[in-house]
């Protein structure tokens, strides 16, 4: 009799412990859909942000969504686009990827991306986020959610200003103030006939250059439908002339070649070759590597109106992804955008401006002790509505290359601005006609 | 007097060559210099040749920033296999084109040459599709297996060399009862050491420096090659030139070593007297 | 008379040895397999693509000869063709001659010659990024080395990479410089194959160094000359990296080569069909030129 009770007792204990084990294993996990999904995540990047995604963000996501496994397919930034196009052509593209902000329309307009408009309306409260409509087309459809935002701001070297007792840029600055200050900040040529410091870097670059000036002058590059060129309008030509005159007439800006010999766009400011210029937020991480660079950021000077260009790298979903994978990818994107911890992490990594407003207006961004101390110029354009994406459409690369090659000749002082802009207008319109004729 | 002129000529020639050699070395020196600099010093005008301070840490940094050792081994494996395969397959085909007579030889050779004339950019996607169907996506096979089946450049190079060897050698060997493979193996290969060494170095180098191939075919980071690893240092807005140059410097070393070793095979070839005997 | 007829008969009736043909099949088997599996398919596919309009994302649309018709009237394409021809015509002969002289100089059995040979080979293996940076510095219109030296002999500074007339010559100079070591290596290998006895005999006969070069070296090198000429032709018609890295095809498309234009069309502007058509026009041109060289070789190439 005793033996039997003992064995029943053991058996009961066994059952109970089995039950506890099963409960322990299964109970904690949230039963979402219950089925295991694996998604392929195409990721272009550099050493810093790739590690943040791999070692921190993805584990955080997988813990919150245990039935989704994210397979990171990393490729360095430069070659990612060729590889992506090859993959798409062969039907091997990842389920979702991070797109360069200026490229996404090339894919969206050709049907490679999933239309996210309804999902965004359903799952995102617009007032809680910054730049949610960045990846939208002229018809209002949304194709992606920004991973982070890169607004262009006006960087200035405080030391250069202090040296000549000039007051720092503020919101009263306009084109005249910019020019006169640049003149004051440009040092005279030394004994070797070279200028050691220029006032401003007037560059043949879309985001940090002519895009801003053209729109500030109430001109346009493309019309609202983004199918017609407006480069032959006097406002646009005037704006480009203002920029080119800075180099050749007023001599307050280095030529592209001189700047190039100092390392180009990234290096001229930390090298103190220019006292002021426009660049995006991400560059501040690079500037901060030069310890003795005393700088800050301000809002871009205004023209007839205010206009500031901004870019963002959006998460986009492959149109050919299966419904359950698209859904799983969407879960990741939602998580990245709305999870406070992730947004804080991304912001503190210095990769760009976070999109969750709660984090934007916190110690993780706007009150962060990092330089530049004034971070308002990066947010204001979006909050106040004068932040502009760069006229993105399906042939953006082609027309932008044609435009900058044509006005590049004016930049080198080889042709007049009028001639260059009219040639650019002709070529850009040809490209647009060819792309939109079907 | 004549001797004096000769000496002057020789000295002048040496100076010219030394000057020329120096100009060739300059990018290499700049790479070394940049590898040891702080980022701020890289682009200064006039350029800084001797960095102050000397940042030896770049070498350890680059080793840790990316899985350098693994990438190095991957590159080595792919390049070695590809080169061996190329040497064998190209020498076979070159021998056939140089010494054998068969119907359609000229047409076939023309087809082989034609493959060199079509820019790779347009065949890239169809080749990718083939590799995908073979199940070779995300493996190293697409990077070295195709070379094992002959490359037009190697075939053409070796054909020219084989054709410039005296054909009396074949006749002598045939009389001795050798078949074609023995002629290839015992006569043509040994006599073509400089050409084979050249093809070996150039093929290895081509495979080593290939960036687009590994980018297209590899998905898993552990399988990446060195060239892909170096492009990790070029980001969307910013390029880390000091790490890039450090990495590039390390990546040049194997080819340099290979080239110097290959010089051993650049010895004077046959003497006519040998044949007659 | 009889001999002539006999020769003609022999010419018309080339009988193939069955054994030899089988051996050829054996030696060519890797190449045949490679062609069938890896080459012919993609070549045919990309040829067919040249008759379509394909943006890589949607399905290709058949448009027949439209791409080709458009290309012939495309000024940019024609200009890139002319630019590429210009590049080839200058860089190939220049490169051949200079690298040959270099190889002859490097062919001496002196101590330390390996150091020299390695030095000349370094640009071939150095990173293109490093070389581009170096040459941009040399060509810089304000701080560059070249203008500095020209200034010493009172020549005004030029904008080497920004002037539409000077940009291509500047790139050509850089390419020739970079490619010297490559050709030199192949020349050296060929020079090794020339038997010493021939030079001995000539020296005994009293021939000067120049005569030896002209009458022994050059003819015996002709197979290699032919090789490098054809390779040079094929490669320089497909030049891409130099203009991609140094100038991006500018200024005003002065350095836009065919393959650069092709690459942009295929992978930046998503016109793969158009790019494929370009590739086949290019391939045709190269093929015809090469064929001409092959037919012509009997006159000067001695095997």
Commentary on this structure:
The complex is a heterotrimer of chains A (438), B (277) and C (303). By secondary structure, chain A is α/β, with parallel strands linked by helices. Chain A has 17 helices and nine strands. In chain A, 45% of the residues lie in helices and 14% in strands. In chain A, helix 2 links the parallel strand 1 and strand 2. Chain B has two domains: 2-55, no CATH class; 66-276, MetI-like fold. In chain B, 69% of the residues lie in helices and 0% in strands. Chain C has one domain (66-299): Orthogonal Bundle (MetI-like fold), CATH 1.10.3720.10. Chain C is built from 13 helices and two strands; from the N terminus they run H-H-E-E-H-H-H-H-H-H-H-H-H-H-H. In chain C, helix 10 (209-237) runs antiparallel to helix 13. The longest helix of chain C has 32 residues, at 18-49. Chains in contact: A-B, A-C, B-C. At the A-B interface, strand 2 and helix 3 of A face helix 5 and helix 11 of B.
Question: What's the SSE blueprint?
Answer:
The complex is a heterotrimer of chains A (438), B (277) and C (303).
Chain A (H helix, E strand, L loop, with lengths): L1 H26 L9 E9 L1 H18 L3 E9 H13 L6 E3 L5 H5 L8 H7 L21 E13 H7 L10 H11 L12 E3 L5 H11 L17 H15 L7 H6 L12 E7 L2 H5 L7 E4 L9 E10 L5 H16 L1 H9 L8 H4 L15 H8 L3 E2 L7 H16 L5 H20 L2
Parallel strand pairs in A: 1-2, 1-3, 5-6, 8-9
Antiparallel strand pairs in A: 3-8, 4-6, 4-7, 4-8
Helix pairs in contact in A: 8-9, 16-17
Chain B lengths: L1 H34 L21 H9 L2 H32 L5 H10 L5 H14 L7 H4 L7 H12 L4 H8 L4 H12 L1 H16 L3 H6 L8 H6 L9 H22 L9 H5 L1
Helix pairs in contact in B: 1-13, 2-13, 3-7, 3-10, 7-10, 10-13
Chain C lengths: L1 H11 L5 H32 L2 E2 L7 E2 L3 H7 L2 H32 L6 H13 L2 H12 L5 H8 L14 H26 L3 H9 L4 H29 L3 H6 L11 H11 L3 H25 L7
Antiparallel strand pairs in C: 1-2
Helix pairs in contact in C: 4-8, 4-10, 5-8, 8-10, 10-13, 12-13
């Amino acid at each position: 009799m005793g033996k039997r009770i003992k064995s029943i007792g053991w058996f009961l204990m066994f059952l109970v412990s089995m039950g506890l084990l099963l409960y322990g294993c299964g109970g904690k996990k949230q039963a979402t859909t219950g089925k295991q999904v694996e998604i392929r995540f195409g990721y272009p990047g550099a050493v810093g942000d790739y590690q943040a995604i791999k070692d921190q963000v993805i584990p955080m996501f997988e813990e919150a969504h245990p039935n989704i496994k994210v397979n990171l397919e990393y490729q360095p930034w430069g070659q990612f686009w060729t590889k992506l196009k090859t993959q798409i052509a062969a039907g091997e593209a990842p389920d979702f990827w991070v797109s360069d902000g200026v490229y996404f329309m090339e894919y969206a307009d050709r049907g490679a991306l999933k239309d996210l408009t309804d999902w965004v309306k359903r799952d995102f409260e617009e007032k809680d986020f910054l730049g949610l409509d960045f990846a939208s087309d002229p018809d209002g459809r949304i194709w992606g959610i920004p991973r982070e935002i890169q607004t262009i701001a006006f960087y200035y070297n405080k030391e250069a200003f202090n040296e000549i007792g000039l007051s720092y840029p503020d919101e009263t600055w306009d084109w005249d103030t910019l020019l006169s200050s640049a003149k004051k900040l440009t040092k005279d040529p030394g004994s070797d006939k070279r200028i050691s410091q220029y006032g401003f870097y007037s560059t043949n670059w879309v985001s940090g250059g002519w895009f801003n000036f053209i729109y500030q002058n109430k001109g346009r590059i493309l019309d609202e439908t983004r199918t017609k060129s407006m480069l032959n309008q006097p406002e646009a030509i005037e704006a480009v002339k203002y920029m080119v005159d800075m180099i050749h007439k007023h001599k307050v800006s280095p030529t592209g070649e001189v700047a190039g010999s100092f390392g180009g766009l990234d290096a001229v400011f930390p090298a103190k070759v220019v006292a002021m210029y426009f660049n995006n937020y991400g560059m501040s991480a690079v500037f901060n590597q030069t310890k003795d660079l005393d700088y800050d950021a301000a809002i871009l000077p205004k023209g007839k109106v205010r206009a500031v260009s901004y870019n963002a790298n959006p998460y986009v979903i492959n149109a050919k992804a299966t419904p359950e994978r698209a859904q799983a990818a969407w879960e990741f994107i939602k998580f990245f955008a709305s999870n406070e911890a992730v947004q804080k992490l991304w912001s503190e990594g210095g990769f760009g401006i976070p999109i969750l407003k709660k984090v934007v207006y916190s110690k993780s961004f706007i009150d962060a002790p990092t330089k530049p101390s004034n971070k308002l110029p990066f947010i204001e354009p979006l909050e106040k509505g004068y932040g502009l994406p760069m006229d993105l459409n399906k042939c953006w690369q082609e027309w932008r290359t044609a435009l900058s090659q044509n006005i590049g000749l004016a930049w080198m002082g080889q042709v007049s601005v009028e001639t260059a802009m009219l040639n650019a207008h002709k070529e850009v319109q040809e490209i647009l006609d060819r792309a939109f004729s079907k | 007097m004549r001797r004096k002129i000769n000496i002057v000529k020789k000295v002048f020639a040496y100076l010219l060559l030394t000057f020329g050699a120096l100009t060739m070395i300059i990018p290499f020196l700049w790479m070394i210099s940049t590898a040891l600099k702080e980022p701020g010093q890289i682009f200064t005008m006039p350029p800084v040749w001797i960095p102050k301070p000397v940042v030896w840490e770049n070498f350890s940094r680059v080793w840790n920033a990316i899985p350098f050792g693994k990438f190095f081994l991957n590159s080595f494996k792919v390049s070695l296999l590809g080169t061996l395969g190329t040497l064998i397959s190209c020498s076979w085909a070159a021998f056939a084109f140089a010494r054998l007579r068969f119907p359609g030889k000229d047409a076939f050779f023309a087809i082989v040459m034609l493959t060199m004339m079509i820019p790779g950019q347009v065949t890239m996607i169809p080749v990718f599709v083939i590799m995908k169907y073979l199940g070779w996506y995300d493996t190293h096979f697409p990077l070295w297996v195709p070379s094992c089946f002959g490359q037009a450049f190697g075939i053409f190079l070796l054909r020219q060399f084989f054709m410039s060897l005296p054909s009396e050698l074949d006749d002598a060997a045939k009389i001795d009862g050798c078949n074609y493979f023995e002629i290839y193996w015992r006569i043509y290969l040994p006599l073509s050491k400089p050409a084979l060494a050249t093809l070996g170095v150039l093929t290895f180098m081509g495979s080593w420096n290939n960036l687009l191939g590994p980018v297209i075919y590899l998905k898993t980071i552990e399988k990446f090659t060195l060239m892909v690893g170096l492009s990790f240092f070029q980001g969307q807005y910013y390029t880390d030139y000091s790490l890039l140059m450090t990495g590039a410097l390390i990546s040049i070393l194997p080819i340099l070593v290979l080239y110097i070793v290959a010089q051993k095979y650049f010895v004077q070839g046959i003497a006519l007297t040998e044949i007659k005997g | 008379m009889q001999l002539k007829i006999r020769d003609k008969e022999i010419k018309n009736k080339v009988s193939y040895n069955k054994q030899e043909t089988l051996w050829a099949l054996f030696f060519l088997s890797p190449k045949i397999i490679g062609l069938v599996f890896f080459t012919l398919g993609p070549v045919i596919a990309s040829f067919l693509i040249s008759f379509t309009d394909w943006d890589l994302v949607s399905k290709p649309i058949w448009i027949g000869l439209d791409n080709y018709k458009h290309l012939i009237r495309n000024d940019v394409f024609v200009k890139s063709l002319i630019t590429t021809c210009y590049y080839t015509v200058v860089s190939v002969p220049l490169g051949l001659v200079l690298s040959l002289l270099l190889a002859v100089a490097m062919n001496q059995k002196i101590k330390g010659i390996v150091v020299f040979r390695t030095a000349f080979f370094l640009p071939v293996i150095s990173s293109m990024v490093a070389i581009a940076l170096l040459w941009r510095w040399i060509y810089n219109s304000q701080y560059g080395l070249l203008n500095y030296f020209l200034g010493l002999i009172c020549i005004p500074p030029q904008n080497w990479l920004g002037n539409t007339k000077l940009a291509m010559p500047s790139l050509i100079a850089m390419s020739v410089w970079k490619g010297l070591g490559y050709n030199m290596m192949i020349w050296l290998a060929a020079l090794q194959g020339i038997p010493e006895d021939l030079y001995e005999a000539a020296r005994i006969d009293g021939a000067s160094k120049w005569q030896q070069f002209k009458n022994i070296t050059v003819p015996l090198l002709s197979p290699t000359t032919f090789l490098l000429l054809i390779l040079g032709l094929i490669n320089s018609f497909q030049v891409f990296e130099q203009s991609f890295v140094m100038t991006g095809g500018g200024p005003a498309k002065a350095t836009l080569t065919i393959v650069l234009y092709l690459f942009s069309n295929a992978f930046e502007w998503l016109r793969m069909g158009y790019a494929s058509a370009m590739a086949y026009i290019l391939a045709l041109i190269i093929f015809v030129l090469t064929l001409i060289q092959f037919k012509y070789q009997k006159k000067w190439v001695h095997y």
